[in-house]
């Protein structure tokens, strides 16, 4: 099946269905990486959030009832992979605030808890955007847990294929101030034209000195069946999410090329470099199909 069977303009979801379930999947990995005395991450909200969503497979996964001995998908390997990703975006925000930026935007926030767990400087505003049911569920669940944001948190419940700049502005976003943006685990769930439009909108809303971080997929070196390969990997740990159905897997601009053409100075940390920065090594299976120019991208508007 291809995504044309399951994805369509205006489709929507909660955290247990369609693209929403992928937010729960990555939060489950953060929960696992945050467990035990040798925890690699400290996301104490990930586990209660995943439990509250209630997808049985992910609850079983964090409780250690399911899992695999597969060399690339065991608990340690999954934890390392999620740690590399989480720390990249954490460090990006830390560097941005150290440089004086006090406005952050998390595009497609899902179950991201950075607005609650990062040590934001006083006076920082963090905007979170995602689909309405995702935003409402996370806000309510964290409030029930007694969690307090560590910044001024403002939510924007909207589809990122719609006029989100207007909604963000209505929520108090100030385009005259430099902003740190992240789009973590988002771009591949947008149609290619919507990805370009999103990056156009981010550029239009960014004062000089603004920064953005996202993943970089080097489409030219991916095999044709990369989406199926990723689905097969997640199936090995028992996930029932068919990623290939949810991705828009056709030709698209790479984020780095697109942003560079819009005046952003881009810096790529390849997957191998990002793992090495944390003292880990990516598995050969991932390296083999990602190619050498995929990884994590940070860019500054000059
Ligand atoms: C893989 S999850 C990543 C969530 C979060 N950034 C993280 O890394 O934990 C993908 C997220 O993108 C959001 N998303 C995808 N397409 C979207 C759209 N068109 N509008 C709003 N949110 C979208 C989903 O709701 C989901 O929360």
* Cofactors, ions and other ligands in the entry: S-adenosylmethionine
Give the C-alpha Rg.
18 Å
Structural class: alpha/beta
Order of helices and strands: HHHHHEHEHEHEHEHHHEHHE
State the CATH architecture: 3-Layer(aba) Sandwich
Strand order within the widest beta sheet: 3-2-1-4-5-7-6
Helix content: 40-55%
The level 1 CATH classification is: Alpha Beta
The total of helices stands at: 14
Mean pLDDT: 93
What is the CATH T-level topology? Rossmann fold
Annotate the secondary structure layout:
Blueprint: H1 3-6, H2 18-33, H3 46-53, H4 56-62, H5 75-98, E1 103-107, H6 114-117, E2 125-130, H7 132-144, E3 152-157, H8 164-170, E4 180-183, H9 192-204, E5 211-216, H10 226-236, H11 243-246, H12 255-261, E6 264-270, H13 271-277, H14 284-290, E7 295-301
Parallel strand pairs: 1-2, 1-4, 2-3, 4-5
Antiparallel strand pairs: 5-7, 6-7
Helix pairs in contact: 2-3, 2-4, 2-5, 3-7
The structure holds S-adenosylmethionine.
S-adenosylmethionine is lined by residues 19-20, 22-23, 26, 108-112, 130-131, 134, 159-161, 184-186, 189-190.
Q: Can you describe this structure?
A:
One of its GO terms (biological process) is methylation. Its EC number is 2.1.1.-. Keywords: Methyltransferase, S-adenosyl-L-methionine, Transferase. Exhibits S-adenosyl-L-methionine-dependent methyltransferase activity. GO terms for molecular function: methyltransferase activity. By secondary structure, the chain is α/β, with parallel strands linked by helices. The protein has a single domain, classed as 3-Layer(aba) Sandwich (Rossmann fold), CATH 3.40.50.150. Helix content is 44%, strand content 14%. It is built from 14 helices and seven strands. A seven-stranded mixed β-sheet has the order 3-2-1-4-5-7-6, with helices on both faces. Helix 9 links the parallel strand 4 and strand 5. Helix 2 runs antiparallel to helix 3, helix 2 crosses helix 5 and helix 3 crosses helix 7. The chain is globular and about 50 Å long. It starts with a helix and ends with a strand. The relative contact order is 0.15. The mean pLDDT is 93. The structure holds S-adenosylmethionine. The site of S-adenosylmethionine has 21 residues, from helix 2.
């Amino acid at each position: 099946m291809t995504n044309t069977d399951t994805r369509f303009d205006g489709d929507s979801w909660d955290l247990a269905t369609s693209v929403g379930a992928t937010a729960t999947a990555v939060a489950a990995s953060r929960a696992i990486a945050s467990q035990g005395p040798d925890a690699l991450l400290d996301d104490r909200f990930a586990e209660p959030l995943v439990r509250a969503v209630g997808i049985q497979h992910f609850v079983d996964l964090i409780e250690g009832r399911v899992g695999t001995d597969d060399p690339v998908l065991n608990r340690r390997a999954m934890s390392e992979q999620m740690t590399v990703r989480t720390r990249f975006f954490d460090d990006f925000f830390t560097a941005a605030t150290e440089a004086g930026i006090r406005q952050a935007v998390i595009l497609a926030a899902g179950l991201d808890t950075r607005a609650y767990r990062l040590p934001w400087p006083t006076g920082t505003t963090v905007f979170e955007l995602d689909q309405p049911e995702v935003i409402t569920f996370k806000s309510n669940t964290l409030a029930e847990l007694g969690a307090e944001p560590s910044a001024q948190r403002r939510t924007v419940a909207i589809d990122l294929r719609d006029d989100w700049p207007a909604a963000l502005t209505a929520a108090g976003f100030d385009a005259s101030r430099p902003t740190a943006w992240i789009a973590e685990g988002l771009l591949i769930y947008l149609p290619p034209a919507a990805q370009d439009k999103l990056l156009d909108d981010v550029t239009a809303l960014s004062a000089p000195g603004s920064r953005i971080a996202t993943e970089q997929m080097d489409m030219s070196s991916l095999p044709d069946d990369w989406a199926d390969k990723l689905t097969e990997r997640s199936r090995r740990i028992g996930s029932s999410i068919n990623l290939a159905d949810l991705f828009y897997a056709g030709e698209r601009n790479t984020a780095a090329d697109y942003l560079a053409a819009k005046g952003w100075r881009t810096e790529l940390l390849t997957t191998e470099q990002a793992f090495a920065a944390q003292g880990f090594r990516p598995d050969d299976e991932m390296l083999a199909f990602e190619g050498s120019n995929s990884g994590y991208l940070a860019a500054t508007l000059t």
